[in-house]
Amino acid sequence: MPGAARELAVLDDRVADLLDSLERTAALSQSQADQLRHAAASYAQAFDEEFGCSHDTFRLIGQDNIRRYRPIERLRIRIHEKDEPFDILARVLAGRSVSCAMAISTPPGSVFPFIDALHDATEDWAAAIEFVEEDDATLAAAIRFGQVDRVRFAAPDRVPELVQQAAAEVGSFLATEPPLGVGRIELLHVVREQSLCIDYHRYGNLGVRAAERRDFLD
User: Fold this and answer.
1) What is the overall mean pLDDT for the chain?
2) Distance between CA 128 and CA 40 in Å, rounded?
């Protein structure tokens, strides 16, 4: 299918290699890998068209009003025993698509074969991803002390009360909606929107930008 081929062509090499490796080692079934390939392609497209760009929708004369997005610098992806491979990897690929520094957080003593396979398959990602073991109290303390910028869960009912309390105390947002394969929605959980208003006129004098086209284009 030509349309599908064009969609998958936007995957970066490391993401493509990761999914191929996990499918080859049977950590993912073919259908799961294909679902995640399409999700990753959607994330890449959303980054190219929206989240990786600066937007000035109204283009006012004499004033720039720029909307742009910045990645969450320290993203914790908290793993729960009910998480499926898609729940885990969709969050990782979303963070990867906007260049978050991610930590995969698992409870101590838990056995997650998929996490072990993911660890082995991402060894060449270096500082882009790390794996940590921490109990709920340690995670809550990290939130309280500002060591985590956002925690991404796979469902609201998988958030411990201890973590909810810590986040409420310091006003830290917990992303708890189930992961989606739609980039325009999922990437909202791994970025912060930033708005800039810049006056470039001086008493109405536009200076070197006087001839600039400022039509409503975006």
Assistant:
1) 90
2) 16
